[in-house]
């Protein structure tokens, strides 16, 4: 007889992974709300699933309850709901999920992360307990928190979460010798970098990048039909000297381009945050990336490196030396053909990791 199957995870963790898969489908689409997923389980099978599609629309719990009502109405009463985020408990754009859970006759709530939103944080447990519903908090908490990292920073500080990205040669250049193509990294690395745009509400570039590269900063690579709106395209400039014929000012998304003063990135980010921008991607070039790291505004880094030596040229991080070198934590390396993607999270000495 074969040995019994050894479970790698508990049943609660197993179902929470499925809720995380649901949440993943909303990443980049729900701003200024967090992406959240839920599954409802009865008799050891999923009877309903759902995720928060966009702000103003039903929350994940309500989507999952409606799904179960359609497909397994008899099993819903007494079922367990797994939700990646603590259910909300007050009226916002939509009604409180705690009420929807009670009304559906659900008997157990398992959630992953506490809601960092001060209006909901740690509110739901008592409400549910008093209604006779069992509550388990913190299942796969780390994963459930990771998926809402941008929301957590923005809702608690008002400042958008910042991802910095660069594609460079092995010797740290973002330009090749005169007369050569301007491409540094390979197709796979560039496509991967463009997909980061799906996750953010705004893309920031420096004026020099607009003058030299004339980028489009648009969503491509199968993002059509995802419901994702074109992220704001923010040009940081002090001089205001920008080519008026550039794609950013003439293409079909020209109304999604804004110009801001780069005197202080933290101030510019605070303005964006006030307008509901939860996350931004800084795509370069070296001057704005240098400023972002000197001003310590970066939360996450994607660095694409190609096996090519260019010498001279523009560096991926320009300007004065950093006051301290910056170490990345939780580093993941991924090869893309002969290119490498470095992914990690800066550790800022005074504060530790920000979120
Ligand atoms: C949940 N489930 O799927 C999400 C939650 O304005 P509203 O009504 O959409 O509420 C937004 C707040 O609700 C948001 O700031 C966050 O605290 C929480 N998001 N909560 O129970 C969900 N997306
Ligand atoms: Zn809710």
TrEMBL record:
Binding locations of Zn(2+): 59, 88, 97
| GO MF annotation terms | 5-amino-6-(5-phosphoribosylamino)uracil reductase activity; diaminohydroxyphosphoribosylaminopyrimidine deaminase activity; zinc ion binding
InterPro entries from the UniProt entry: APOBEC/CMP_deaminase_Zn-bd, CMP_dCMP_dom, Cytidine_deaminase-like, DHFR-like_dom_sf, Eubact_RibD, RibDG_C, Riboflavin_Biosynth_HTPR
The alphabetized UniProt keywords are:
Hydrolase, Metal-binding, Multifunctional enzyme, NADP, Oxidoreductase, Riboflavin biosynthesis, Zinc
Active-site residues (renumbered): 61 (proton donor)
- Per UniProt, NADP(+) binds at 209, 213
Question: Where in this chain does the record put each CMP/dCMP-type deaminase domain?
Answer: 10-125
Pathway given in the UniProt record: Cofactor biosynthesis; riboflavin biosynthesis; 5-amino-6-(D-ribitylamino)uracil from GTP: step 2/4; Cofactor biosynthesis; riboflavin biosynthesis; 5-amino-6-(D-ribitylamino)uracil from GTP: step 3/4
Any GO BP annotation = riboflavin biosynthetic process
Task: Please give the catalytic activity noted in the UniProt record.
Answer: 5-amino-6-(5-phospho-D-ribitylamino)uracil + NADP(+) = 5-amino-6-(5-phospho-D-ribosylamino)uracil + NADPH + H(+); 2,5-diamino-6-hydroxy-4-(5-phosphoribosylamino)-pyrimidine + H2O + H(+) = 5-amino-6-(5-phospho-D-ribosylamino)uracil + NH4(+)
Q: Which Gene3D superfamilies match?
A: Cytidine Deaminase, domain 2 (3.40.140.10), Dihydrofolate Reductase, subunit A (3.40.430.10)
Binding-site positions, substrate: 167, 181, 197, 217, 220, 283
What EC number(s) are associated with this protein in UniProt?
Answer: 3.5.4.26, 1.1.1.193
Q: Which NCBIfam families match?
A: eubact_ribD
Function field:
Converts 2,5-diamino-6-(ribosylamino)-4(3h)-pyrimidinone 5'-phosphate into 5-amino-6-(ribosylamino)-2,4(1h,3h)-pyrimidinedione 5'-phosphate.
Family membership, please give it: In the N-terminal section; belongs to the cytidine and deoxycytidylate deaminase family. In the C-terminal section; belongs to the HTP reductase family.
Q: Protein name, please? A: Riboflavin biosynthesis protein RibD
In its UniProt entry, the species of origin is given as Prosthecobacter vanneervenii
């Amino acid at each position: 007889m074969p040995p019994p199957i050894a479970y790698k995870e508990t049943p609660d963790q197993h179902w929470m992974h499925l809720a995380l898969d649901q949440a993943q489908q909303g990443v980049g689409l729900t701003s200024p709300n967090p992406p959240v997923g839920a599954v409802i389980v009865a008799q050891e099978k999923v009877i309903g699933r759902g995720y928060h599609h966009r702000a103003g629309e039903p929350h994940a719990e309500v989507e999952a309850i409606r799904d179960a009502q359609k497909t397994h109405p008899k099993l819903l009463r007494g079922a367990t709901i797994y939700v990646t985020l603590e259910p909300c408990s007050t009226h916002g754009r939509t009604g409180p999920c705690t009420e929807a859970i009670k009304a559906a006759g659900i008997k157990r709530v398992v959630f992953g992360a506490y809601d960092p939103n001060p209006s909901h944080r740690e509110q739901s447990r008592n409400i549910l307990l008093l209604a006779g519903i069992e509550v388990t908090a913190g299942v796969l908490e780390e994963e459930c928190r990771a998926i809402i990292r941008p929301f957590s920073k923005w809702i608690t500080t008002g400042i958008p979460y910042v991802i910095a990205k660069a594609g460079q040669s092995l010797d740290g250049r973002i330009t090749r010798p005169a007369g050569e193509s301007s491409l540094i990294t390979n197709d796979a690395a560039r496509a991967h970098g463009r997909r980061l745009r799906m996750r953010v509400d705004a893309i920031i570039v420096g004026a020099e990048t607009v003058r030299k590269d004339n980028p489009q900063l648009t969503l491509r690579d199968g993002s059509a039909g995802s419901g994702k709106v074109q992220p704001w395209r923010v040009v940081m400039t002090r001089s205001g000297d920008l080519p008026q014929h550039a794609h950013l000012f003439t293409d079909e998304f020209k109304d999604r381009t804004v110009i801001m003063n780069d005197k202080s990135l933290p101030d510019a980010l605070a303005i964006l945050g006030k307008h509901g921008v939860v996350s931004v991607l800084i795509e370069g070039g070296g001057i704005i990336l240098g400023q972002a790291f000197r001003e310590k505004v970066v939360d996450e880094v994607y660095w694409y490196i190609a096996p090519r030596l260019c010498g001279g040229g523009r560096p991926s991080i320009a300007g004065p030396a950093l006051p301290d070198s910056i170490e990345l934590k939780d580093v993941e390396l991924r090869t893309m053909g002969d290119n490498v993607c470095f992914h990690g999270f800066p550790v800022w000495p005074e504060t530790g990791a920000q979120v």
